[in-house]
C-alpha cells in the first residue's frame, strides 16, 4: 500500500476546502464529515464514498494520543478501513497531527471566526503549511491571497 505524503494530504484538503468555500455542516449547523449540499469537511473529503457511513458522524477519526486533544468521543470502527482506502497512514504520528490540525484547526475554526470562511481558511492553511514545513505552491487559491 502506498500512502499519501503529508504534502499530498495538505494539497488535497486545502484544494478541496478552498474550492468548496464553505464548511460541511448538518441542519443543526454542526460540523460534520459529510454535510448538506454534498459538502465535506477536511477529513470527510479524504474518505472514499464507498467507505463513508453515517455512523462515522460524531466520532473521532484517530484515537486521542496527544496532550490537549479532546477526549470522550469514541473512534468509529469504520475509520481504519476508510483511512487505508484513502491512503492515510494512521500509524504515522505526523500524519495524524496534520489531519487533526486540518480538521480542527482549519475547517472547524471558521465556526468561531467573524471573518468569512475562506479568509479564515487562507490564514489557517498558510499557518498549517508553515507549522508542518509544507508548501502552498500546489494550491493556487493560496498563492498571493491575504
Largest sheet: none
Shape: globular
Number of strands: 0
Mean pLDDT: 83
Q: How much β-strand is present in the residues?
A: under 5%
Distance between the termini: 38 Å
Layout of secondary structure:
Layout: H1 6-20, H2 79-86, H3 93-107, H4 117-131
Helix pairs in contact: 1-3, 1-4, 3-4
Structure write-up:
The protein is mostly helical. It has one domain (6-142). The chain is 36% helix and 0% strand. It is built from four helices and no strands. It has helices at 6-20, 79-86, 93-107, 117-131. The chain starts with 5 loop residues before the first helix and ends in a 15-residue tail after the last helix. Residues 67-72 have low confidence and may be disordered.
Spell out the key features of this protein.
146 residues, 0% strand, 36% helix, mainly alpha, single chain
In short:
The protein has helices at residues 6-20, 79-86, 93-107, 117-131. The protein is an all-alpha fold.
Amino acid at each position: 500500500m502506498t500512502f499519501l505524503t503529508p504534502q499530498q494530504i495538505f494539497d488535497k484538503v486545502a484544494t478541496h476546502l478552498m474550492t468548496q468555500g464553505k464548511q460541511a455542516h448538518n441542519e443543526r449547523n454542526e460540523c460534520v464529515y459529510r454535510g448538506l449540499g454534498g459538502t465535506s469537511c477536511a477529513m470527510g473529503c479524504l474518505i472514499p464514498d464507498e467507505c463513508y457511513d453515517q455512523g462515522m458522524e460524531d466520532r473521532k477519526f484517530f484515537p486521542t494520543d496527544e496532550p490537549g486533544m479532546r477526549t470522550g468521543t469514541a473512534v468509529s470502527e469504520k475509520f481504519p478501513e476508510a483511512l487505508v482506502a484513502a491512503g492515510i497512514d494512521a500509524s504515522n504520528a505526523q500524519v495524524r497531527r496534520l489531519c487533526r490540525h486540518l480538521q480542527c484547526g482549519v475547517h472547524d475554526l471558521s465556526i468561531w471566526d467573524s471573518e468569512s470562511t475562506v479568509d479564515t481558511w487562507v490564514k489557517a492553511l498558510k499557518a498549517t503549511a508553515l507549522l508542518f514545513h509544507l508548501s502552498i505552491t500546489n494550491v493556487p487559491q493560496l498563492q498571493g491571497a491575504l
